[in-house]
Structure formats: structure tokens, C-alpha cells
Amino acid sequence: MIQIDYSLTPAALQPALDELFRLSGEKIHRLQDRWNPERGTPVFTAKGEYTSRGWTEWTQGFQFGGAIYQFEVTHDEAFLDIGRRNTVDLMASHITHIGVHDHGFNNVSTYGNLLRLMGEGLIPYNAWEKNFYELALKATGAVQAARWTQLTPNSGYIYSFNGPHSLFADTIRSLRALALSHILGHKLMGEMDRPISLLERLLQHAETTARYAVYYGEGRDSYDLRGRTAHESIFNTNDGAYRCPNSQQGYSPFSTWTRGLAWILCGYPEELEFLETRPEASLAPYGGKDKILARFLQVSEAVADFYLQYTPLDGIPYWDTGAPGLAHLGDYLDRPAEPYNDYEPVDSSAAAIAAQGLLRLGSYLKRNLHNQKGTRYYQAGLTIARTLLSESYLSLDTAHEGLLLHSVYHRPNGWDYIPPGRKVPCGEASMWGDYHMRELAVMLHRAANVQGEPRFFDLRV
User: Fold this and answer.
1) Domains along the chain?
2) Is the pLDDT of residue 461 over 80?
């Protein structure tokens, strides 16, 4: 269980954040100078160098979005140029990519962040540039929403790249694409010019995920622990019936892949913030604002509590809570995580994602007068961040292209690099881990400087 430091403040982390952005800038330039886009998208490192891995193209937005975050803090326009120029040159295909569920990852991280920074005055206002970003965001949300499996007249989900039968936990964090497209007044047009509400699809996907991908300790099956999550939920597309949990990247359907848990822990509080700003009238057709917020909060608290209980003292989880090698590690939850052990890898990327969710959930609860619970979650997020900013996890080697060490991609498939003399993956980075570490660092930098948390839906252009 995480040992929460209740005395920690964002300001206390500022020196470590300054060091992170110094290292981050060097690594962005190094990768930009070396990487040939014709090789595909950089995914994770092997021997300290980024390499691609053909599966789905879901990490390119993280590559350029990371440079945009670097500019947000440093105001160094070289990073803005990297982010903006590559967004224009290389991201268009991601807007209309009908084969993936990852639109929020790729396009909100690039077009969305650029539009947000223009609204905050960090990028000079330009009407055509603004319209360009807005059109991209309108289109990506609609394309994502069109990847739809209807279960009943009032329920459904955005299906994963595995096909119409498959719902992934990851997608909840990618719903930002639907949210932004909705904010910008867009609709998906169906047969006979039937307008399809993007907000409705966002809410239906979130409810399906909450119902089937998250457990609440209510005896659903023999492994029903409150807050446990399933990476994949399988449905019969003939009649819409739920069939079973599954896992693509975790150990089993009945254990918890911790990055899948982290996606849900990050996604629901973020959407909770978004829905909190919506007028009551827009949510009335879907059960009302109070009911919707309560449901999102229920999910958020359940997965947050599970994460805190089943993660080692320093806040860094092993890659799956049921990984078989954990039995060899003894009381591993009662000491800091050990990335160089001989049995199971940790996943620092899950920690970076989860820390954001804990910070946002904590802020939401404190804002709504639940100070004790809110403080617990917020301080847990700060505690995890402190660990990630330490020399144990932050890559200090300028020859290493990664920023956040000890991230894993696909343990069951054996894709991750294992250094000589080691038995499990360690010492490497991933594009999503680096991006979410930068995103977490931006949140903390702004909090330390009393600038307010960045929210994806704050479009003031």
C-alpha cells in the first residue's frame, strides 16, 4: 500500500521539475534529430534508443505533444516549432484513422494542446490556425464516435482495434476527442442525415466501461475486488450480450493490468472535470447532471482506492497485480518497488498516468467540500510524482533517448528489451510514459506557480 506523504507540496517538487524539463529538452532534440518518420512512429526504447513497433499507430501524438508541453513550460519556441510543424506535416492521417480507438491520444495531444495554448495566449492568435485546429478536433471526435457497437437502443461503446466485439479500458482516456468535438458544436451525421450526439456517445461508452470493465466488490465473479479492472470486455455482437473479461496486455482476465487500471483512473476524473462544467440542460436527457457526476465519481474512487491498496509504498506498480512472479517477491507491497528484481517488471508509465488521475480526483473532491478524501488522493498523486522525479526513474543519461525509465509495453508478447544479465525488462522508456510524465510535470509546475491545472476542454480562443 502506498505510504502517502501528507506534508508534500507541488512547490517542494519545483527543483526536480526544473531538472526534468532540462533533461526533457535534450531528449526531444536528440530524438527529433535522429528519427526518420518513414520508419513509422517511435514506441519504446531498446538499449536507450527509440524503436518502432507495428501494432497500431497510437504514439505519434505523444511524440509531438511532448514537445508542445516542453514549450508550455520553457517558452522555448524551438519546441513549439517541433510540435506545430510535425502536427501539420504528419498528423493528418490520424484524424481520419478509422482503424483505431486512440483519437484522443494522438490528436488531443497535438491539435488540442495547440488550440488550448492559443487560448491561453502562449501562441499568438491566428484565425486560420485556430480554424485548422478546430476542424481537426471536430473531425477526429466524429471519426472516433463512428467506431461504434450498439448494444441496446440506449447503450454501446467505441470498439477497439480488435473489432466490434471488443471494448478496451484505454479508450476512456481517449474520450477527450469526443468531448472537444462536442464542445466545438460538431455532430456525427448518420444515414438519412440523422445527427448523432457526440456527448451521448461519450456518456454511453463511459457507462458501458463502468459497468463491465470495473468491479465494485459486489460478487460479480470469484475475483470481484472493488476497483479491480479488466483490460478488455468481450460482447456478442449478434445480441449485444456481455460475454467475458479478457486481457491483451495483462496477465489474465481475472488479474489487473496496472496500466489499464491507470487509464481508467486518469480518464474518469478528467471527464468528471469536463462534465462538471456542462449545463444541466445538456445532461438532463441522460439522467441528469447529479446522477452522471455521481456515477463517474463512484468509478473514480473505486479504482483510486484499488491502486492505493495494491501498489508498493513508493507508488510504482508492478505491471500486473496477478503476475505469477510476484509470489517470489514476498511482501512486495510493504516496501518500495524494485525495478531490477528477477521476477516481474514494474511499470512506471502506469504510475505517471495514475498520478494525474489522483491529482484531478483529489482536486475535484476538495472543490466539492470533501476535503479529507480529496486530500488523501491529491497527496498520493504528489507522492508518486516525487518517486518518478527521483534518480531511480528519471533518465539522467543524455545518451538515453527516453525520459522515464522502467516502462513496459507488452509483457505477454515479450516485446520489451531485457538488458544483458537481467531477467525482466527494465531501464527502458516508452513514448506514452515520457508524454504522461511531461504532462504530469506540467500539472505540477502550474500548481507550484499557482497557475491552475491544465484542462483539455479549456478552449478560450
Assistant:
1) 11-448 (1.50.10.10)
2) no
